[in-house]
Amino acid sequence: MNYRHNDQNKETRSCFVCKKAGHLKKDCRVWKARMEQENNKQPKSKHKAKNAIATELHGSDSETDDTNHGCFTIGIGQMTSDWFIDSGATTHMTNNLSFFKVLDQTKTDQIYIANGTSINADGIGHGYLDCMLDDGTVHRIEVKDVLYAPTLTGSLLSVKKLTSKGKKVEFTDKHCFIRDNQKLLAVGKLESNLYKLSCKHKSELANMAKSEVKHQDCIHSWHRRLGHRDPNAIKCIINEGLATGIHINDCNVMMKCEHCIKGKFTQKPYPEISAHRTREPLDLIHSDVCGPMKTQTPGKNKYIVTFIDDYSRYTMCYLIQNKDEVADKYREFFAEVSNKFQRKPKILRSDNGGEYTGNKLVSFLKQEGIRLQTSVPYSPSQNGVAERKNRSIIEMAKCMLLDAGLSLQYWGEAVMTAVYLQNRLPTKATDKTPFELWNGEKPDLSHIRIFGCKAFAYIPKEKRTKFDDRATEAVLVGYSERSKGYRLLQTDTNRIIISRSVTFVERELNDEMKTVQQMMNHNVTGEKPNVTGEKPQPATNEMIEVEIQMPADNIDDEVEDNNNAEADIDQLRRSTIGAK
C-alpha cells in the first residue's frame, strides 16, 4: 500500500529551470547552485539593518507576528525622527532629510533588511545631532557617512561606525553611554526594548533659540560676568541700589554652575554632636594610633594606641614600638573588657589605616563577630572622638613634663598618667566621670599628687642595714594600675619603683612664677620687686638699720683669743649704715 501510495503522489510536472520532470523549481539542484553562486558574488558594500524598529514602532504586541519581529520592515508603523543606537547596523542611516547639512544624492546604495529584502538609499552625507545629557548639557556631535533612506521608519546610529572612529559604546540594563576619551558625549535610554538616543530635535532647538534672548541678561549671565559671585550677592546689588547699569531678566530657570562646584567645592561640615549615642559600655569602641614620637621611651616605644568606650568615654592606652602591635593590643584589650563585663565589644571604629584593615586584626574581628567601621580616606574628623582624645592626652602630658622639668624620654609615663587622670575627670560628653560609668563608683582623688614632685619611698628592712637610710629619694611619674602604689622614678639609676609608703614634697612655684607674683604685688602695693631673695624694702628715703650677719667660721678666723674677743665679735657682727 505504501509503495502504491508513493507512486500515485509522485511529481509528474517538469522544472522550469532544468526542464526535467519529477521535481519543481524549489527543489531543483541547479537553481539552488545558481542562487548560492549569485549570493557569493553580491557586493560587500551593501549595508544591513538588523534592529527591530518597525515592529516596536507600530505597537504590535502579537507574539505570532513572525514577519516583522527582529527585522526592519518598510511601510509598517508610523514614521519617526528619533534616533536609535543599533549594534547590528553596519553604517549610520536616517529617513530625515532635514538632518543633512551636506547630502550627495549622486551616490546611491542598498540597505539589506534582516528579513532578506532590501531598500534603496538615495544619497549619503553628514549632519549634526544635539545630544542632551541627564544634567541638561547639550553636546553637538557631527555624524558623517550617513545614508539617506526615505522609506525607513526611523534613524539608526551604528555602533560599528562609532567604535571605528575611536568612540566607546557601553550598554547597561536601561542606558547606553557613548564616550570619547572618558568624556560623555551622548546617552541612550531603553524604551520598548530599543535604546533611544536622547537628543533635541530642531523644533526644540528653535524654541531654545527664541528663549535665549531672555537668558542674555538673566541671573546666570550676570553670575558669569561678575566672576561667578554668589547669586544672592548679585541680587543684593539691585535690591539695595549699590550699582547702576545692571538689569536682571527673569529666566524662570534654576541651574547649578558646574564651574563653581569644581572650583569652590568644600567638605561637608561634620556634626558637632553625634546623632547616635550608645546606651551600654562596649557597644562602640573608638581607636586611633598616635605617633611616631621623635624621642623613644626607655622601653623603645614610639607610638600610643588608645581604645575609648563611646558610652562612658573611659580610655585604655597602650605604648607600642610599631603599628604592627595594634592587633595584639586589641586582643589584650578585648580579653580584659570581655572578662570585666561578660560581653564582647560590638563595633570597633577607627581610621582607614593599614594597622586596622590588615588581615591580622580583620580576621580576629570576624571570628569574634565584631563589626569594623572605618572613616573615609583623608577624613580624620569622622573618627573625631579618638582624634580629640589623643590630642588632649598629648597636651596634658606635655604640660606635665614641662612642669616637672623631666626629659622627653619619659613622655610615656606622662601619657599614661594623663590617661589615668582624664578617666577621673568630667567630660562634656557625659554627666558623670568616665571612671564612674565604667566601674560603677565615684573616683577617689585623695592620693593624687603633682607629677614630677620629689618623693621619698620607704625601704623595707630586708633591703637595708641598721645604719642605712630608711627612705630613698625619687620623682613621682605615675600611678600603678596593677597595684595600689605610686610609680616612682630614680633619676640616678633610671629605674621605676612601685611603692605605697611614700612621702611627697610637692614643690612650690618656680623662680619665674615668684618673680611674676612679686611684680604683681609691686603694682598693687608700690613695693619694688625683689629678685635676689632678700626681704622686700620699702621705697622710702628714711634712714634704716640693717643687720648683716657673717658666717661664724670666718669670724673665728679673724678674732684673737683674749679678754676683748666677745666685744670684737659683737662689733664685727653688728654695724650701722645709712641708706637713702
Q: Examine the secondary-structure arrangement and name the CATH architecture of the largest domain.
A: 2-Layer Sandwich
Q: Which structural class do the helices and strands define?
A: alpha+beta
**Count of discrete alpha- or pi-helical segments spanning 4 or more residues:** 17
Number of strands: 24
Shape: elongated
Mean pLDDT: 77
Note the main sheet: 5 strands, mixed
Strand content: 15-25%
**CATH superfamily (homologous) name of the largest domain:** Ribonuclease H-like superfamily/Ribonuclease H
Name the assembly state: single chain
Domain count: 6
What is the CATH topology classification name of the largest domain?
Nucleotidyltransferase, domain 5
What Rg do the Cα atoms give? 48 Å
Weakly predicted, low-confidence segments:
1-5, 51-77, 208-214, 531-569, 571-580
Kindly state the percentage of residues in helix. Answer: 25-40%
- CATH class assignment of the largest domain: Alpha Beta
The span between the termini is 163 Å
Commentary on this structure:
This protein has about 575 residues and is of the alpha+beta class. The protein contains 17 helices and 24 strands. The strands form six sheets. Strands 3, 4, 7, 8 and 14 form a five-stranded mixed beta sheet that branches. The protein has a five-stranded mixed beta sheet with strand order 17-16-15-18-19, sandwiched between helices. Helix 12 (about 385-405) crosses helix 13.
